[in-house]
Amino acid sequence: MNTVNVALIGQGFMGRSHSNAWGQVAKFFKPPLKPIMHTVFGQPEENPRVFADNWGWKNASTDWESLVRSPDIGLVDVVTPTYMHAPVAMAAVKAGKHCACEKPVDATLQGAREMAEAAKAAGVKTFVWYNYRRVPAVGLAHRLVRDGALGQIRHVRATYLQDWAGESTPLMWRFTKELCGSGAHGDLNAHIVDMTRFVTGQEITEVVGAVAETFIKRRKLLRGVAAGQITAGLQSSDEEGDVTVDDTLLFLARFSGGAVASFEAARQATGNQNRNTFEINGTKGALKFDFERMNELEFYDATRPRAVQGWTTIMCTHGGDHPYVANWWPDAHIIGYEHGFTNQAFDVLKVIAGEEPTLPIPDFADAYQTQRVLEAAMISAEERHAVKIADVK
Ligand SMILES: NC(=O)c1ccc[n+]([C@@H]2O[C@H](COP(=O)([O-])OP(=O)(O)OC[C@H]3O[C@@H](n4cnc5c(N)ncnc54)[C@H](O)[C@@H]3O)[C@@H](O)[C@H]2O)c1
Fold first, then answer.
1. All domains in the chain, ordered by first residue
2. Which of 68, 94, 105, 171 is the 20 to 30 A CA-CA neighbour of 296?
């Protein structure tokens, strides 16, 4: 079997989920290329050798610049804080490596654009880990829309709500604009912008209005390394620093097919730990998805006689009908968060080998389109006016 040597740059939360995916993918799927978990990068204080041994990486490195240029490496997987995406990914693609990068594709629009341009010039394959596309229920939603089950789409309503960023959460990199670009917006709206573009098959053409707020403007500084943790176990010092990103950003938008849309991202939406949802209403039917019930998709078929119309809850666990499921467990033996990443690893390997992915997969150029929408919403919130996506480049 042909192989590809993978280098993983970062070993935090996403470092763990990607390590799991690279370790699982050839066990559950039959990819055309087998990934070799060659080397993981971590900062010296993280002791990457311990991480490597735990997750099955052959080698550990504290020098990403040499690693991404190494002739031994074929695919670079970037899971650093967002401000490091462009420097690492650009070095990788310029060295002729295929590159898979976490989302949002970069902290700045300029970085995202330069990544797309560099990838095109290098002629390598690139991927962005908008992993929710690879949840079988979301894949089914994409296929139902593609096959016309919704008719003309009129409304798109998407929310991504979390509640971990209370007063006691210290000033990790996710609260500093230079390190992440934006707060809940780039972290969470990025996913629902990508997911609704994917499901509707349409582009967002205009942000009509937006509101952003930072409720907690100063936080205690972090003590020690906090990689791999969202909040649990973080140690804070007595000193404080400024929060320079949003806690929440809501915006209204228009899609290319004429639908109107609302998006809401929040980190202090008490009662919602990871409530990633969309509802899409068309002239013939409607769809609802909620990641907290990720094995299910709700479908309303408005072409049935009115007397029997109603929401149908579809268990998206049937191998013959739902994407990726045949490679996991028997019907209704449900899957979880980590499976989306393994499903994506399978498609990354297919594309590198020259095959079609199971479902469309975003590359740097596609993720740049999502970044333009995010940028438009930030401009709209700051300057309080509508912004056409065509004017954001
Ligand atoms: N796809 C998703 O659903 C999802 C979920 C969470 C995070 N993310 C994204 O993944 C990325 C990483 O997030 P995380 O939660 O894993 O972060 P994390 O803080 O848990 O881990 C970050 C890792 O990057 C390394 N790192 C830190 N500074 C670095 C630097 N200057 N140079 C090189 N490496 C550095 C750290 O050593 C650490 O191993 C972010 O872009 C984030 O937006 C995506």
1. 2-131 (3.40.50.720), 135-330+363-383 (3.30.360.10)
2. 105
Q: How far apart are CA 280 and CA 202, in angstroms?
A: 13
Asked if residue 82 has its Cβ within 6 Å of ligand 1, the reply is yes
Distance (angstroms) between ligand 1 centre and the Cα of 260 equals 33
Q: What is the pLDDT of residue 229?
A: 46
Residue nearest to atom 29 of ligand 1 (CA): 80
What ligand 1 atom has the least distance to the C-alpha of 341?
1
Distance, in Å, from the CA atom of 14 to the CA atom of 6, rounded to the nearest integer, reads 15
Q: What is the pLDDT of residue 305?
A: 98
Q: Which token pair is 277?
A: 């949802």
Q: Give the whole-angstrom CA distance, residue 275 versus residue 162.
A: 7
Alpha carbons within 13 A on the beta-carbon side of 391: 9
What pLDDT, in 10s, does the model give residues 231-245? 445 667 778 899 999
Quick one: pLDDT at residue 233?
53
* DSSP state for residue 179 in the 8-state scheme: H
| Residue 99, both tokens | 């590159």
Give the residue, out of 102, 131, 177, 371, with the most ligand 1 atoms within 8 A of its beta carbon, to mutate for a pocket test: 102
15 lines ligand 1 (CB under 6 A): yes
Cβ-in-10-Å burial (0-12, 13-18, 19+) of 72 comes to: exposed
Does residue 182 line the site of ligand 1, with CB under 6 A?
no
Give whole-number Cα distances, 331 to 76, 271, 298, 316, 326, in Å.
Answer: 35, 31, 18, 9, 9
Please tell me the predicted confidence (pLDDT) of residue 235.
66
62 lines ligand 1 (CB under 6 A): no
Q: Which residues of the chain have pLDDT under 70?
A: 224-235
pTM (2 decimals)? 0.96
Q: Separation of 103 CA from ligand 1 center, angstroms?
A: 10
User: What's the token pair of residue 26?
Assistant: 């050839």
* Cα–Cα distance for residue pair 82/39, rounded to 1 Å: 21
Give 171's DSSP letter.
B
Q: Which of 76, 80, 225 most suits a substitution to test ligand 1, by most atoms within 8 Å of the C-beta? A: 80
Please report which helix (H) or strand (E) contains residue 113, including its range: helix 109-122
